[in-house]
Amino acid sequence: MKISYQWLKQFININESPETVGKMLTGVGLEVEAIYPVETVKGGLAGVVIGHVLTCQKHPNADKLSLTTVDIGGGVVAPIVCGAPNVAAGQKVLVATVGATLYPTQGEPFTIKKAKIRGEASEGMICAEDELGLGTSHDGIMVLDTDLPPGTPAAQLLQLENDYVFEIGLTPNHADAASHYGVARDLHALTGLQICFPESFEHKVGSRREKIEVIVENTEACPRYSGLTISGLQVKESPEWLKKRLQAIGLTPINNVVDATNYVLHELGQPLHAFDLDKIAGRTIRVKTLPEGTVFRTLDDVERKLTARDLMICDGNSQPMCIGGVFGGKESGISDSTTAIFLESAYFHPGYIRSSAMHHRLKTDAAYRFERGTDPNMTVKALKRAASIIIDIAGGEISSDIIDVYPQPIPHRQFTVKYKNIDRLIGKQLDRALIRQILQRLEIQILAEDETTFTVSVPPYRVDVFKDADIAEEILRIYGFDNVELKSSLNADYLAEYAAPDLFKIRMELTKMLAAIGYHEIITNSLTKPAYAEALAMPVEHNVEIANRLSSELGVMRQSLLFSGLEVLAHNISHRQKDFRFFEFGKTYQKQPKADGTTFYAENDRLVLFATGNQHSESWQVAEKKTDFFQLAGTVQKVLQKLGATQAAPQEIDGSNLFAYGLAFVMNKREVARVGLVQMQHAKSVDIKQEVFYAEIDWTYLAGKLKQPTYSELSKFPEVRRDLSLVLDNQVSFDQIRRLAYQTERQLLKTINVFDVFTGESLGSGKKAYALSFILQDQHQTLTDQVIDKTMEKLMGAFERQLGAVIRK
After folding, report:
1. Phi, psi torsion values for 152, nearest 5 degrees
2. Of 210-219, 506-515, 623-632, which range is least confident?
3. CA–CA distance, 231 with 9 (Å, rounded to integer)
4. How many CB atoms lie within 10 A of CB 293?
5. Contact of 656 with 626, CB cutoff 8 Å
6. For the chain, which terminus, N or C, has the lower number of CB atoms within 10 Å?
7. Each residue's pLDDT tens digit, 354-404
8. pLDDT digit string, tens, across residues 708-755
9. How distant, in Å, are the alpha carbons of 390, 723, 759 from that of 756?
10. Is there a single domain that holds both residue 257 and residue 390?
11. Which domain range does residue 753 map to?
12. Quick check: is 803 in a domain?
């Protein structure tokens, strides 16, 4: 949002420098991201002064040139060669002195230097309008009618008003400051300086010949609709003062009527819209929604299909003329031939405007304000202000009474605030009189007060003030965050046994590790389709639904990160990029029941991994190899090791709606990670036709279990490896073997691994063979053959008795 310094000073007489004002605004929560100067005329006419032509005669060597002497002030008389036909002695003119740089209306800028023209000295330039960038005329030099003395700067004569513009990064909670008047209100609260509302003249209604009927059919979407008609006006170019105000904040002037509505929008924060009165069928305005798919041509000459939620301003025949609060229509807009208008000033529900603006991808100044919340009590004030400006610059007269459809006025919010909560949230006890003063300047009225509480009445334009914490925030931003002193000493009731893990640092370490092995990080939208939870057989009643949903495609918060990642893969695959490994740190959301019958919202952090396509890019050095389950499972194990979850045991997943096959890693009887091949129907639902491997790690749980790493001295004694080949029934898993092995030998067995799996007719029906390696080690002595053999016999016996294994010799 852009705010003009000079425009701002029309509301509040603040004399601080733009830099100081920028710091003040940032201090009250209106973060100023940049301050830059805006010149009315480029270069500011620096070096251009009023000159008095003392003499003028023909140039001896050129028929079309004149020799002049010009008093340019300070006792300096400059010889100047001039080619203008209208130059004469006794004139007051504008002179560009030596060293001045001019920025003409057309062409490149140039600097004035001492020169000889046809043998005669020339020390300056008597200027025409276009040479100074003041217009397009080049018929002759500018001849002035002024009593100002020679040497007076041209900028002073022309009253050039250089300006500064503040670029404010307006946060959504400060919708009340989305205008020059709104920003001035905060400066008033901070400084106590008087603030003035812009003048609007009460024009008398003429013949009332252009009466308009307004019918609001959807009062939820449009709680208040105001308007009036103006007849006998002339659409033309805006006056300079209006064009300069709009240009200073980056707007392009269009015509006097449209410019006036834009001016009031940025002045008061109330969007307005002007309709050509002759194009309103039946002299009736209907505010309503239309059937889904209705085609409407907007001002940018684009045909758009409406949704059933788009609030439309229609004529008496229910033909759409404008997407309410967002964008006007092609057919009802103002043109050069317009002589009468209907001027609209309304309050629209933010949810409806936000939905329409997002659906049609229309980011207009009006939608920007409506979707954040405007002031319902400003509609008539802004209407009068805009009508006053239009009549002043376009002529005409008001030809109807003010229409104001407001069936259910929006009341001020009233609630009780505890002083102890204000003191606690601010961090110090403020004088009660100071609190009352700040709230009064913020137009928050105190209705009642005692020693411990006070009751406030908050105007509707303060869209983010609902409770004690909001009142504390309003007080604190005006009082000043920097004015809350830190205590001289810090203390704590509890000292941790060791420093808590830095979760951000650990996350960055994981990010570096995954990036180093070829994974790319993605960030996806938390809003998703309700159908995705159904596809994974997740309870629909656990969906966190969006109250003001933008579309059915973004109707709920995600319960899983699977489909948002699959959509990223599908996008890349459609662009012929088929080999990918992604990871994402993201959140899942669920609505869950409580024992007392109420519900609470669960928010959990997850780390997910995706792998698809080939493991390596095509190369003559490396044979093509597809990504497989074991590659991703190995990455998951590396992540778990990095997080200190080495005791997480893998278990096969049976009958998963998510995976065709996979593993779950269990720690403390809780599943902390799972990895597998995504069921093909899920991939196909987003148009992926290749295998996708997916892993999900419970970052919330593991982050809460993180401890400082422990270390042990490396054994001085060697490891011993022994191999076994076991013939087992197909249903016996490696996890069963692993757990049984560690239960049987707790001291010496360090690692067990599968290095080969064999199935075939020679083993018999329903059988498989595992080739296993066992690493044995003693921390205190070298293992002897006797101890090794005894340990292996104990393991083989356990496998034979409990798993029905046959030891292959």
Report:
1. -65, 130
2. 623-632
3. 33
4. 9
5. no
6. C
7. 999 999 999 999 999 999 999 999 999 999 999 999 999 999 999 999 999
8. 556 677 888 899 999 999 999 988 888 889 889 999 998 899 989 888
9. 87, 11, 10
10. yes
11. 720-808
12. yes
Question: Do 385 and 359 reside in the same domain of the chain?
Answer: yes
CA–CA dist 147, 144 (Å, integer): 9
pTM score, whole prediction: 0.63
- Long-range contacts at 250-259 (CB < 8 A, ≥ 24 apart): 250/2, 250/165, 255/334, 255/336, 256/390, 256/393, 256/394, 257/233, 257/334, 257/338, 257/341, 257/390, 257/394, 258/334
Q: Are residues 467 and 586 in the same domain?
A: no
Does residue 679 share a domain with residue 542?
yes
| Cβ contact 365:250 at 8 Å | no
| Structure letter (DSSP) for residue 689 | -
167 in the same domain as 277: no
Residue 207 lies inside a defined structural domain of this protein: no
471 shares its domain with 509:
no
Mapping DSSP onto H, E and C, the string for 68-101 reads: EEEECCCCCEEEEEECCCCCCCCCEEEEECCCCE
List residues bridging with 115 in a β-sheet.
Answer: 122
Nearest to 144 by CA among 124, 128, 130, 162: 128
Cα separation of 71 and 156, whole Å? 18
**What is the DSSP annotation of 207-233?**
--TT--EEEES-TTT-SEEEEEEEES-
Q: What is the CATH number of the domain that holds 469?
A: 3.30.56.10
Same domain, 627 and 546: yes
Identify whether residues 234 and 342 lie together within a single domain: yes
Domain containing residue 276: CATH number: 3.50.40.10
**Residue where a domain stops, chosen among 655, 674, 705:** 705
Q: What share of the chain is helix, strand, coil (3-state, %, to 5)?
A: 30, 30, 40
Q: How far is CA 175 from CA 374, 608, 630, 750, in A?
A: 7, 37, 53, 63
Token reading at 271? 């969007």
Tokens 């057989």 -> residue: 537
Residue 253: what residue type? P
Classify residue 486: in a domain, yes or no: no
Output the CA–CA distances (angstroms, integers) from residue 442 to 418, 434, 448, 642, in the order listed. 19, 12, 17, 52
Q: Please report, for the domain that includes residue 60, its CATH number.
A: 2.40.50.140
Count of domains for the chain = 6
Quick check: is 754 in a domain?
Answer: yes
d(CA 425, CA 473): 8
Smallest CA-to-CA distance from 662 within 688, 637, 629 is with 629
Nearest 5 degrees, angle CA 797-CA 801-CA 804? Answer: 110
> 681 is written with which tokens?
């129907």
Exposure pattern of 740-769 as b/e (b: 16+ CB <10 Å)? bbeebbeebbbebeeeeeeeeeebeeebbb
* Residue that finishes a domain, picked among 670, 705, 740: 705
% pLDDT > 90, the chain: 67
Q: How far apart are CA 202 and CA 317, in angstroms?
A: 33
Closest to 74 (Cα-Cα) out of 93, 91, 92, 97: 97
